[in-house]
């Protein structure tokens, strides 16, 4: 058996429910945001009470929790920042992720025992920068996504502190995420956590003298995308990342659902376990990629670390999100009427469709929906709609953290037209 150092698997959560799914599907650590000063502020996130509850839940499972405090902070926000950090006293945080050296100083003064992690927003691309962060009291650095694999190995080998690297998720078209496009176009500041993703919109040209006469910049049947980056996926290269000696691998996606977080966490957990057992074969890589493909994503890229031609980073195929499966439901207790699991419906599905069921620690299972009922009603139904609570015959032993999906036949139909 291999004695390789296996890095921590660090995954995102937007609320306490998703944190629980992340823990159940194999995360070693979860990173989350509070209600202020983080880079995903549009919806969700944790109140102080949620933070406390999430920490207790994770720590019972020996899972760490890191709080993001990595927004760009202006002078007129400093007092609010200090008050917020004061509110964190008494919480058993395993680390705070920051991108501003001034914020680091305030955190260290108020919460001297908390570990400091340097965010990718700080744009750390060389060993001297890592050593400077260490001298200032940082315990870990998340390196810039824009570095090469050789640079990663060199930095890890000479670093006096832990090194973290992104391996999966959305890529920002801007260098280390420092983008102003959304703020200029919509007033929503990406550096305050309110990005409108303007880079992924459809665009047309309109000539000044010809109002409402639109011309495509580059035309295809789907429209035009100017800065539409692919999604990072280093699953097939994960053994190389492990060989480099990183301390933590990070999944992007604090705006994602429990379906996405559970699936991606589980796949990378299996991959790390295979690497530890020297079983990360080509066949197993292909199998894990087929599972990963069940989460919605843009075309994948191996990013800056392994590409010779950086043109692959931009998604010129303009396919948008690839969505082969639809997330249709989660477990929500057991029915007193039937004694079977109650499913909270997220997207519509119907009888005779095939359910793809994902459960912690198990390979996916499939069942055909033969009979289903609304909770506490004896009458059989043919279609389950969002927010319905339904009973599906045949799911009696389903795990409470199960995820239910169906194949997206619409996408298959679009490919055939």
Estimated structural class: alpha/beta
- Tally of separate helices: 12
Gap from first CA to last CA: 50 Å
Task: Quote the average pLDDT.
Answer: 86
Count of β-strands = 21
What's the shape?
Answer: globular
Radius of gyration computed on alpha carbons: 23 Å
What percentage of amino acids are in beta strands? 15-25%
Poorly predicted ranges (pLDDT <50, ≥5 residues)?
A: 219-225, 413-417
Helix content: 25-40%
Order of the strands making up the biggest sheet:
1-2-3-4-5-6-7-11
Profile the largest sheet. 8 strands, parallel, barrel
Structural notes for this entry:
40% of the residues are buried. It is globular, with a radius of gyration of 23 Å. The chain is α/β, with parallel strands linked by helices and 417 residues long. The model is unreliable at 219-225 and 413-417 (pLDDT under 50). The protein has twelve helices and 21 strands. The chain has an eight-stranded parallel barrel with strand order 1-2-3-4-5-6-7-11, surrounded by five helices.
Topology readout:
Blueprint: E1 8-12, H1 16-24, E2 29-33, H2 48-60, E3 64-69, H3 78-87, E4 95-98, H4 101-110, E5 116-118, H5 127-135, E6 140-142, H6 149-158, E7 162-170, H7 181-186, E8 204-206, E9 214-216, E10 231-233, H8 238-244, E11 248-251, H9 258-276, H10 282-292, E12 300-301, H11 303-306, E13 325-334, E14 341-345, E15 349-350, E16 354-358, E17 365-368, E18 372-374, E19 383-384, E20 389-392, E21 403-407, H12 409-416
Parallel strand pairs: 1-2, 1-11, 2-3, 3-4, 4-5, 5-6, 6-7, 7-11, 10-12
Antiparallel strand pairs: 7-10, 8-9, 13-14, 13-21, 14-20, 15-19, 16-17, 16-21, 18-20
Helix pairs in contact: 1-2, 1-9, 3-4, 9-10
